[in-house]
Specification:
Chain lengths: ~150, ~150
């Protein structure tokens, strides 16, 4: 199994870079992954940003069969245990899983429709920088659950 | 209005200390607050830890009329906008609001029963160190929503 992460813009706040780096490192013990940053669209309207960034994200998917998971507030909410179970079942049929987190304005309807699973982390709104850390932390947590390992704080 | 935060044990991971400090600082522009750390119970069974830490948390509440909000997975989930509305209504009737986050093992039934509101951040499990940062960030976010201010990333 291999993960690809597609994000819009780099993580700018140092504090969220640090948390992201920590959980990326932990996750890398369990799975190989690629991280691609899509440049944010500038000097355009909000809806143009959404369209252009979403198109760019779709084009940046790895070649070949790919299971596409998009993080969006319209998605399904999961407990950490439910995520662990889903990950277990996805990885048996999909050698390649891509996770998308959009930019400040979100994602297009087209991208959401093309997703195999839409996941909402919480009813709370998080910045996309926080969402990245939570994504890496929850994936790390899911692997520790599935492997019966203790979670390291 | 004044906030009190009661947590079990100090935040040990540097990365979560840094995020916590950032959002505490931002929150302090909107509200006065006290933060009290309850020492974690040691060399006891899990249920003894829960009982002793919860008793200690209850005893550490500020004197006088106090609205007690406890973070627990059994609680009600809120969107950031719902939290902002609730905060608006609580603060008109309760000059003092206390937020409790327990230790690694959680909180006693007694403490949950004595709470005025039980709040679940997400169906996902977070460490109590992450939960603290998310609490401060969401309270900061709620104030920016209620005051119609832009959210600073």
């Amino acid at each position: 199994m291999k993960f690809t992460f597609l994000f819009v813009d780099k993580t700018r706040a140092q504090i969220w870079q640090d948390t992201e780096t920590e959980y990326q490192k932990r996750l890398s013990h369990f799975v190989k992954y690629n991280l691609k940053i899509i440049p944010p669209t500038k000097n355009k309207t909000q809806s143009e940003c959404i369209e252009l960034e979403s198109k760019n994200l779709l084009l940046s998917q790895p070649a070949g069969k790919n299971f596409l998971i998009t993080l969006d507030k319209s998605g399904q909410k999961l407990s950490s245990e439910e995520l662990a179970k889903k990950l277990n079942s996805w990885q048996t049929t999909h050698p390649q899983i891509t996770f998308i987190i959009g930019g400040a304005f979100g994602l297009s309807e087209e991208l959401l429709k093309k997703s195999d699973f839409i996941w909402s982390l919480s009813p709370l709104t998080f910045t996309h920088e926080m969402a990245r850390t939570i994504l890496f932390e929850q994936l790390y947590r899911a692997f520790t659950i599935n492997k019966g390992l203790p979670y390291h704080y």
